[in-house]
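Regression test attached.
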Amino acid sequence: MNEREKPAPLSELDARLRDARGKANEAAGRTPRPKGATSGLGFALRIGVELVAALLVGGGLGLFLDRWLGTTPWLMLVFFLLGAAAGFLNVYRLATGMDQSVGYGRNGTKNDGKKGPGPEAG
Amino acid sequence: MAEKHSPLEQFQIKTWIPLEIGDTNVAFTNSALFMALAVVLIAVFLVGGTRRRALVPGYWQSMAEISYEFIANLIRDTVGNEGRRYFPLIFSLFMFILFGNLLGMMPYSFTFTSHIIVTFAMAIAVFIGVTVLGFVRHGTHFLHFFVPPGVSIVLWPLMIPIEIISYLSRPVSLSVRLFANLTAGHTMLKVFAGFVVSLGAIGGFLPFAFVVALTGLEFLIAFLQAYVFTILTCFYIKDALHMH
């Protein structure tokens, strides 16, 4: 099918796949993934959670290391910033649809039939 | 509950049977009661549903089969065939969270998934399990997880800690997501329900309509959050197995 013409952009293929899968799901009586407002809300909340979680972990790790090594406040400051960076990284991955993999495994999972964006809601 | 008028009162842990082993408090609380209830209900639901094993399933058997197939398909779609061996874990997680959420939708019940220690315990169990799985499968090669490809060695000291923090933040975000959704939803329900009472017969209809709508939304969230927790677990397992 793909050889017939110029291959469509992956994102378009993705959308079509998702459509087809949604229809198949409906036919099979499975619950379709909720769309619209809830999904957007879930996505927004998820971004917030990812950002804060990484910050918490970074700050907490720094605090713990400080207590242990007696280097208050330096490590905490450093790890807080690293945590912020990790948070941004998480959000970036989530937004570009690589959220399920640590590292930069972009497109590595595309060909086994699973689309990028992961769970959109939540 | 009504006399206090606090929307947060529903989350209070009440000790029912005080019990201590050594210095550890292992009292039987309302939280423990509902967890036990969830497990019993799941067992009844599945065992009862598959008891007859009819070729043409009835309602009950259909529901049991649908929940089984739902998770089986989820695992096949995300992890692949290798993931089948983790089906018991993932299915138990899903059913436990789902029944916890749904039990919480009953009036006067207690939602154990609205306590972060419960969700965090599940998330950290998944996290540790996945990490161990990764190391067992790939040995020290699993550490390549934390080295982004295509980044020059100069940046490694910066990127590796960031990757590690990003990895460590997984259980936190996994647990906070479930906990926050459930807590916020149930609090909101109580707040709007409180408006119904205080506005009385004159203006109580509007918040009442809201409560009805929110209840529907809460049922959706109950399913959705169980699903999200499950699918993220699947993704983590897939990551550990395949490491892209």
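Expected vs. actual: identical. Chain A has three helices and no strands.
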